[in-house]
Amino acid sequence: MTVRERASELVQVLPEVYPGAHTELNFKTPLELLVATILSAQCTDKRVNLVTPALFKRYRRAIDYAKAPQAELEKAIQSTGFFRNKTKSIRAATAVIAEKYGGHVPDTMEELRELPGVGRKTANVVLGNAFGKNEGIVVDTHVTRVSQRLRLTKHTDPEKIEQDLIKLLPEKVWTDWSHWLIWHGRRRCFARKPDCTQCEIFRLCPSGKIFIRTGEARKPEPEAA
After folding, report:
1. Which of 43, 175, 208, 217 has its CA 20 to 30 A from that of 108?
2. Contact at 8 Å (CB) between 30 and 130?
3. How many C-beta atoms surround the C-beta of residue 2 within 10 A?
């Protein structure tokens, strides 16, 4: 099976395995998703979702974040880690949104990438999930790991991985692809001891048999007596 054939089959199988896959960051508006995505760097979505309800209630507009004192916002997001840099990024990005875009988060890759602290990954998250635009593919640690194990890329740099995936996958599934692989990485294809024996896409994974043979895969649970 060629890499392109494998990718084509995965596009057919993964939506059946994860039909409800979506971003696990809670949000209602593009601004909330942008803030949540910045907070999610080096932090779990679960932790971010514990912080954002109070945050979103307190800061409703871009200008609210921009004018928030550094120390005040730092305290509100402290548990997400790297809170000083995240606070600087949020305040700087929302200041531009308030001044240049009338308080509305822009909906193009170029404009989002111009916001302080917003890289391609964050822009892809916002475009795909808040605006329904398939501009690119979100490449996080799960997408990186699973894509490598599926032998869809040999690269380790996120932007190079994204370009490899873009060449293999139809544009209409770019946002969904990230969800499928993130869900698979969290639920089955763990960084340590992947659950290959229960894996729904085992037959399409060149790494699975190797993990089982070398004992790197999670052992199946014993059947109940």
Report:
1. 43
2. yes
3. 7
- H helix runs in the chain, sequence order: 3-17, 30-39, 45-58, 62-67, 70-77, 83-100, 109-113, 120-130, 141-149, 158-168, 174-187, 208-214
What distance in Å separates the CA atoms of residue 138 and residue 160, rounded to the nearest whole number?
12
Residue 93: exposed, middle, or buried by beta-carbon count in 10 A (0-12, 13-18, 19+)? buried
Whole-number pLDDT of residue 225: 45
**Per-residue pLDDT tens digits for 7-51:** 999 999 999 999 999 999 999 999 999 999 999 999 999 999 999
Q: Which residues are catalytic?
A: 121, 140
**pTM, 2 dp:** 0.93
83-100 and 70-77 helices cross at what angle (nearest 10)? 120
Distance CA 91, CA 31 (A): 12
CB atoms within 10 A of CB 191: 9
